[in-house]
Amino acid sequence: MKKLFLLAAAIVTIVDMNATTNGKKPVYKDPKAPVEARVSDLLGRMTLEEKVGQMNQLVGIEHFKQNSAAMTAAELATNTANAFYPGVTVADMEAWTRQGLVSSFLHVLTLEEANYLQKLNMQSRLQIPLLIGIDAIHGNAKCRDNTVYPTNIGLASSFDVEMAYKIARQTAREMRAMNMHWTFNPNVEVARDGRWGRCGETFGEDPYLVSLLGEATTRGYQGNLDGTDDVLACVKHFVGGSYSINGTNGAPCDVSERTLREVFFPPFEASVKAGGASVMMSHNELNGIPCHTNKWLMDGVLRGEWGFKGFVVSDWMDIEHCVDQHHTARDNKEAFRQSILAGMDMHMHGPEWMDAVVALVKEGKISEQRIDESVRRILAVKFRLGLFEHPYSDAKTRDKVINSPEHKATALEAARNSIVLLKNDGGLLPLDKSKYKKVLVTGINANDQNIMGDWSELQSDDKVWTVLRGLREAAPETDFSFVDQGWDPRNMSQAKVDEAVEAARNSDLNIVCCGEYMMRFRWNDRTSGEDTDRDNLDLVGLQEQLIRRICETGKPVVLVIISGRPLSVNYAAAHVTAILNAWEAGQFGGRAIAEILYGQVNPSAKLAMTMPRSAGQISTWYNHKASAFFHPVVCGTSEPLYPFGYGLSYTTYKYAGLQLSAGRMAADGSVKAQVTVTNTGNRDGVEIVQLYVHDCVSSVARPVKELKDFRRVELKAGETKTVEFTVSADKLAYYDIDMKKIVEPGDFEILVGPSSRDNDLQKAVLTVE
User: Quick check: bond before 186 cis, omega within 30?
Assistant: First the structure.
């Protein structure tokens, strides 16, 4: 493989006699020329090897060095986060880059390395710039000292579409300041199984909410995709990875086309139609066909139905998994052939691609015209991003942009708005500083950077607010005692648990910070995150014992949950005085938690994902079919612990007077729905008003309710506002028995309230004629 790749490199070092014509700049180097003309001009100058190179990506050199020294070749087969290439040297990778045979790098974490790789690449014959990709999932958090925002599941719990756009826009600026151009986000998979470790990087369980946030995030990253502040979004993972048969990442998904089109397709379609210029395929096979070789998905749905004009990229070595996991190809070369013919444009990642794909073209198994299609799509993005004119960034720009005061303020505001108050018995919260002077703080997430969440690397300690740091700053006069339980829930110390219980007896109040561990630098020790799936949703290790025994002291207990997935905290729900679900709140998470606990901020977030009582309730998403719970379970309940859309405040709200502007409408018409919401408490607050729709009688079974709109409404104490929604035909449409999207005549319930729970909703009936 290496010899063939180097032979190809030798071929493309031939001087391009067409680089200039009578001393004039070639069209592809003219920034004033139309993108289409630049692409065509450049494509006409490229060798087959250069074209195939534009379809391939490698891991960064520093990543390669680190892992070639620490990993064995055998470990590569199952590792989906780290890589090196056996038999390849750094000198080889540098040579391929100089010769223009690499299109993109990922896992490049510094400006210095990004610039170095671009400088190598600028020595190539045609000087086609590199596309540097990175998993900037909630800010460019894998890079040192960049802003770390709350993860997507927390952002979704704020129901704040404008904030999603704002965070993406700021992330794009920080990425370009680091000379990085492509983020592998938004993840618009609809999360329906809490066992799946990647719930935290999604926007939750509802297709409508996921669609709006994915669309806003895509627009935020890309802008007009024509400036030095814009980056390429990657809409992922298409499709079904969040609904595997056993809740594990990459396991098969078997699901009907109806469910795909009603639940899982809409967020992808929305992000693509918002301009999303790259799409990543999903690890899994869908109804028996690997997504990475699924022509119906790539060419049929994406390009044929939705008009997608960007390029499709594989996920980490997933084309190769057609050989060793799906067993749908004899070898990698055959898998590459299947994937390209199905519509794949770029390979993540590895050097084997070059020799195999060049050979496939020369053998007549793939046409060069098909290769040209992919290269056109990739080159167009590079031109649109201005990389030919601006291949570098600099330290001065980086230091001015990353973690700027404006971006830090956004991260703090987003954290405040992402934390869900689940329980507050007796009005314990907000805490009275004069009453609770001695406070115990303990738990695995009390004083650890894990609060930032998955897809984060260690940051400077002064830039991260743990819960303990936040509490001490919010209430400096309070005596906070801290019993460290370590960061690892699987290896908690019984002695430390005993120590915390003893300290609890002597405290006025006890704050326990529980949850899961997500930090990627301890990959094998995590309990949540990518490729970290569970067979249950209980607290790991001695955490349940810690909570139970501290509750038994009789002192009031506040539980703070830090996790990327919903957890089954049944004992706490029954016995703890107050509960905050903080999700993964980012670098300012501890400050935001403390501000809420002490009443400086009134919580407003609502759950973007149902919290089940156990793993046996993984199907208790709110928009289920009525027959799902026709027969109640024995020895238990079908009711979730906390439903989608649920969240408390330090004030109270009253809903009244739901009315429609008309009781009847045409199938292509619309009506207005109005409800008055009053803040009946003594504190200002923000209420998230939710509108659901239920089709009363239909030709195909429909969900009991579906979220179709929402508003974040600011209300001062005692204030009343009228909240108006437009109920249009598209909010009532669905796929009928013939899989045609229509609005059927009949009655629809319009439901408005503070959560998806039936008792919280006001109801009006609309008849479609």
Answer: yes
pLDDT tier, 20 (very low <50, low <70, confident <90, very high otherwise):
low
Pick from 517, 490, 488, 513: nearest CA to 500:
513
Active site residue 315: yes
In the chain, residues under CATH classification 3.40.50.1700 are 417-629
pLDDT surpassing 90 at residue 113: yes
CA dihedral 530, 328, 296, 349 (to 10 degrees): 50
The mean pLDDT of 221-238, rounded to a whole number, is 96
Residue 14 pLDDT:
46
Are the C-beta atoms of residues 146 and 138 closer than 8 Å to each other?
no
* C-beta separation of 649 from 605 below 8 A: no
Return the SS3 of 43.
helix
Please write the tens of the pLDDT for every residue from 72-94: 888 887 888 899 999 999 999 99
Q: Which two tokens stand for residue 389?
A: 């004119």
Given a cut of 70, whether residue 1 has pLDDT beyond it is: no
- Residue recorded with tokens 């901020």: 601
d(CA 51, CA 219): 29
Q: Which of 315, 345, 355, 454 is catalytic?
A: 315
Give ranges for CATH 2.60.40.10 in the chain. Answer: 653-768
Q: In whole angstroms, what is the distance from residue 328 CA to residue 273 CA?
A: 32
Whether the Cβ atoms of residue 292 and residue 339 lie closer than 8 Å to each other: yes
| CATH classification code of 653-768 | 2.60.40.10
Question: For 187-224, what is each residue's pLDDT tens digit?
Answer: 999 999 999 999 999 999 999 999 999 999 999 999 99
578-581 and 479-484 beta bridge pairing: unpaired
Retrieve residue 194's tokens: 């809490």
CA 649 and chain centroid, separation: 26
Looking at domain 417-629, its CATH architecture is: 3-Layer(aba) Sandwich (3.40)
> Cα(46)–Cα(26) distance, rounded to whole angstroms?
13
Task: Name the amino acid, one letter, at 233.
Answer: A
HSE value, Cβ hemisphere, 13 Å, CA-based, for 365: 14
Q: What are the angstrom distances between the C-alpha of 141 and each of 147, 196, 286?
A: 6, 22, 31
**Cβ(108)–Cβ(114) under 8 Å?**
yes
CA dist 544 and 554 (Å) reads: 16
Residue closest to 454 by CA, chosen among 60, 59, 81, 159: 81
